[in-house]
Amino acid sequence: MSVLIIGLIVFLGAHSTRIFAEDWRTAQRKRLGENAWKGIYSVVSIIGFSLIVWGFGLARQEPVLLWTPPAAMRHIAALLTLIAFVLLVATYVPRNAIKSRLHHPMLLSVKLWALAHLLANGKLADVLLFGAFLAWAVACFIAAQKRDRATGAQYPAGATGATLVTVAAGAAVWAAFAFWLHGVLIGVRPFG
Predict the structure, then answer these.
(1) How far apart, in whole angstroms, are the C-alpha atoms of residue 38 and residue 141?
(2) Cα distance between residue 9 and residue 43, in whole Å
(3) What share of the chain is helix, strand, coil (3-state, %, to 5)?
(4) 101 in Cβ contact with 156 (< 8 Å)
(5) Is 79 exposed, middle or buried (0-12, 13-18, 19+ CB in 10 A)?
(6) Cα–Cα distance between 112 and 6 in angstroms, integer?
């Protein structure tokens, strides 16, 4: 479990500089240069992510069951992850109404993904992994909203076509992941 915890600290710590150390982050980007900062940030993120994957795999070998979720939670999790994938795609499709309205769809996506997995899983490693990501996404969303208010950030109006593309692409990626990739990459098939 310690490898998982270290991985979460490294990965989420690197991704929390805008929450807890915005001035330090800005100073380092200026001192090192944009490319060097991104390079260091990427290396630290990859190390943290690798530790999370390895640690979660180790923890799954000796699971500690905290509770057994009702079967209905799998269906709720499926719906929440579908919405999470649409929100994730909304981060990247220009001028969609979802991003225009919600401003930070990736953080909302992470929140829904983590919540869905907390509802559907009852092992200690699941609670650590998904609980940490949920707490991080909540804190990051609050910080992002605060930055938006401070800077008077404006988001362009969304277009219907871009929004339809966002929803369709999000649903397609969700289907591919839920019915095929989740089993291949994670070893768990949500739909049998």
Answers:
(1) 21
(2) 14
(3) 80, 0, 20
(4) no
(5) exposed
(6) 23
Q: Which residue shows structure tokens 């109006």?
A: 157
| Rounded-to-integer distance, Cα 57 and Cα 75, Å | 24
Quickly state the pLDDT bin for 191 (edges 50, 70, 90).
Answer: confident
Dihedral sign (CA 66, 79, 53, 192): positive
Specify whether the CB–CB gap between 87 and 105 falls below 8 A. yes
Which long-range contacts link 171-177 to residues 24+ away (Cβ below 8 Å)? 171/82, 171/85, 171/86, 173/85, 173/88, 173/89, 174/81, 174/82, 174/84, 174/85, 174/86, 177/85
List, for residues 137-158, the tens digit of each pLDDT value.
Answer: 999 999 999 999 999 999 989 9
Question: And the tokens for 107?
Answer: 């953080």
Neighbour count for residue 162 (Cβ, 10 Å):
18
Closest CA to 59 of 110, 13, 130, 128: 128
